[in-house]
Amino acid sequence: MTASFDVAVIGLGAMGSAALAFLAGRGVRAIGFDAYFPAHALSSSHGDSRLIRLGYFEDPSYVPLLKRAYQNWRSLEARLRTEILTITGVLQIGAPDSKIVAGTRASSELHGLAYEALDKEEMARRFPAFQLDDHEMALFDPQGGYLRPEAAVLGYLRLAVEDGAILHFGEKVTAIEPDDAGVTIISETGRYRAGKIVVATGSWIAELIPQLKQAAVPIRQVVAWYQPQDDVATQPQRMPCFLRDEGAQGTYFGFPAIGVDGVKVGKHAHFREPIDPNKPNPPVNDADRDLLDSFIRKRVPAAAGLRMKETTCRYTMLPTEDFLLDHMPGEKNIVVASPCSGHGFKFTSVVGEILADLAIDGQTDLPINAFSFAKV
Hints:
Layout: E1 3-10, H1 14-25, E2 30-34, E3 50-52, H2 63-80, E4 85-87, E5 90-94, H3 99-111, E6 116-119, H4 120-126, E7 137-141, E8 145-147, H5 149-162, E9 166-169, E10 173-179, E11 182-187, E12 191-199, H6 205-208, E13 217-226, E14 241-245, E15 251-255, E16 263-267, H7 286-299, E17 307-317, E18 325-328, E19 331-337, H8 348-361
Parallel strand pairs: 1-2, 1-12, 2-9, 5-14, 12-19
Antiparallel strand pairs: 3-8, 4-8, 5-7, 6-7, 10-11, 11-12, 13-16, 13-17, 14-15, 15-16, 18-19
């Protein structure tokens, strides 16, 4: 006899775990599948920290979703009785007309968000860990900070179970077969039926949604941690999280010394190297080390001590670097989520709500018109 559910969620990383928790919290008979186990090294939602910021340079249209995300993160913390979102402020650094600085200012002013504009001298006084060129400045977002991704994912999974969801880990879904009445889910070990499904499989999204084979590209990402030379200047009270616009060289990001390994830095999208999602992430190499070592010596000299740790992870990039949150074309019972492109984790708490809306109601009141298949 085939087990039957109202909604099945395939992929239980950040977005899938949140979706499952929202579904179960609304009384839906829900099941979640993942080929691996929580916070595994091939996911895009493991590790110790992810940035969150309210003044969003990418596009002001993200800000209403971020406001809802902040509310939902605090609701999650209240129910779990644990801290997931820590406010340190976020510095967004570059030339006044750079994409990051100009975009953050425009987004903040459009939505009435608080920010401070700091020149090189003020930065040196308040945040001495950073080195700015004479023409550069920073915008300080006082509501920015960082999230603990593994605590968030495990927390959502815990809530999903408490509210009645069933979890199947280590069970890969190999096919989905939609029909007018719902969807048949075929895994390596069984068959299931659901009225609706949510596909949120990260770098494997194209395996079940072949329309995304050319669009959703898994790439290699590298981050490294450094034991700071100045322990005082790199503490969260003196060194906020940051983004730095290096023009043609790209965008870098970093965190203060929030753990034993020290200050964490990376370059957004790194070298944009495509990877095979079914193979281990390629190891860190000398070119990776040179890139990050050079950056931290030049731009965050207070943190440029011994490199303590390094790792590779993955992004799944869409052509516009925006999100995809939509029903599969022609299939009202399949909701597809690829809200990634290297800046998605901070939205997890609101994306989970959106995916539950789409699965239960077929629509959402939250602003996602820009994230449709038509835009991919």
